[in-house]
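quick q for whoever's on today - can somebody do inverse folding on this one?? i tried earlier but teh output was garbage lol. tokens:
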């Protein structure tokens, strides 16, 4: 749940032809790096679920960086990757199923 959305997003943004073990390792390290000292002290191994969008973006960047650094992905600088990830990340928008009422997520 924490790694796979970011893995897919990072692979798509980087245009890598394959997913490697090192991409999974770098994505996993990115997730563990998001766990605060307070969360660690409380025995948590993963960030809060409320941070899932940020986790996905962080994993996507780690995957894209690994793809780039290993010669499998696009040669883009970090800021370009950030922009592409933000643009490509899915933003939920729910249409209303009741006529005349505004949709959720507006």
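ok took a stab at it. sequence:
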């Amino acid at each position: 749940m924490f790694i796979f959305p970011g893995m897919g997003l990072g692979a798509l943004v980087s245009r890598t032809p394959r997913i490697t073990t090192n991409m999974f390792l770098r994505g996993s390290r990115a997730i563990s790096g998001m766990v605060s000292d307070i969360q660690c002290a409380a025995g948590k191994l993963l960030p809060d679920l409320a941070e899932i969008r940020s986790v996905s973006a962080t994993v996507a960047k780690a995957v894209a960086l690994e793809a780039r650094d290993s010669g499998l992905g696009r040669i883009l600088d970090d800021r370009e990757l950030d922009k592409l990830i933000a643009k490509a990340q899915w933003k939920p928008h729910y249409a209303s199923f009741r006529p005349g009422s505004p949709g959720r997520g507006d």
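fwiw The mean pLDDT is 91. also The chain has one domain: 4-88. so keep that in mind when u check it
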